[in-house]
Automatic annotation (TrEMBL):
InterPro entries to which the protein is assigned, alphabetical: DAPP1_SH2, PH-like_dom_sf, PH_domain, PI-Interact_SigTrans_Reg, SH2, SH2_dom_sf
Localization of this protein: Cytoplasm; Membrane
Name of the protein: Dual adapter for phosphotyrosine and 3-phosphotyrosine and 3-phosphoinositide
Record domain PH: where: 150-245
This protein's GO CC annotations: cytoplasm; membrane
Membrane topology listed for this record: Peripheral membrane protein
Length: 251
């Protein structure tokens, strides 16, 4: 199966084809898998966006997550962030100077190196030594495709304690089906990892004496979080609900 999106925009027979880090119809899921497995902090690539033929997505690896930013082609030029570039050469020259991006969650990312579309691959293959069936009587209808749910996100949230009901600011990262929280952004070891496969619901919460709150319901405990803004809370809820829907598909 191709890693490129079925819902691609029209084939671009123009200058972008000369850009070595333009990945055409690479999907969001595949871009995240590619950058997380083979890229490094600050690696980035440009790909088509489902928003329309004049829209593109810049996917950037930021430590253990991948951020996506819109790029718009308008009147032969390119709109990115707060800048407008009249030509593709101007656009590419901007990236050659390793620009610094700041996301809505406060994450600062230095765009260090483009991830190339063509990568050299070794011609090494394993030899089959054992080939037998574990089951019998199954047909092609029993084949169920499975892949990890990526959709990364990170940012600061205020979390309520379990015993002492005080609120503390923590750094959160969401990767695959794991929601981890750390003492702060610089901490390497998480305080705790929540397995979303055990979570039954995520929803807005209005029971706390705070705004922009939501909760995650687990069998042993309900976790309460508050975001800085209603927009941030809504973004967390949307991606967490999507994660839960992916876990239920495999049940």
């Amino acid at each position: 199966m191709s890693v490129y999106s079925d819902a691609s925009s029209e084939e671009l027979g123009d200058e972008l084809q000369s850009l070595g880090w333009y990945h055409y119809d690479l999907s969001r899921h595949a871009a995240e898998a590619l950058l997380l497995s083979n890229g490094s902090d600050g690696s980035y690539l440009l790909r088509n966006s489902k928003e329309g033929p004049s829209w593109f997505a810049l996917s950037v690896r930021a430590k253990d997550s991948v951020k996506h930013f819109h790029v718009e082609r308008r009147d032969g030029g390119y709109m990115f962030g707060f800048n407008e570039f009249p030509t593709l050469q101007d656009f590419v020259s901007h990236f050659a100077n390793q620009p610094l991006l700041g996301s809505e969650t406060g994450t600062l990312i230095v765009l260090k190196s483009p991830y190339p579309w063509r990568v050299e691959e070794p011609s090494i293959y394993e030899s089959v030594r054992v080939h037998t069936a574990i089951k019998t009587g199954c047909t092609e209808n029993d084949l169920v495709a499975a892949a990890p749910s990526l959709g990364t996100k990170e940012g600061y949230l205020v979390k309520q304690g379990a015993i002492v009901k005080s609120w503390k600011l923590r750094w959160f990262t969401l990767n695959r089906y794991e929601l981890k929280y750390f003492k702060d952004k610089e901490s390497e070891e998480p305080i705790r990892t929540l397995d979303l496969k055990s979570c039954s619901a995520v929803q807005f919460d209005y029971s706390q004496d705070r705004v922009n709150c939501f909760c995650l319901v687990f069998p042993e405990r309900t976790f309460y979080f508050c975001a800085k803004t209603a927009v941030e809370a809504d973004e967390w809820i949307k991606i967490l609900r999507w994660k839960l829907s992916q876990t239920r598909k495999g049940r």
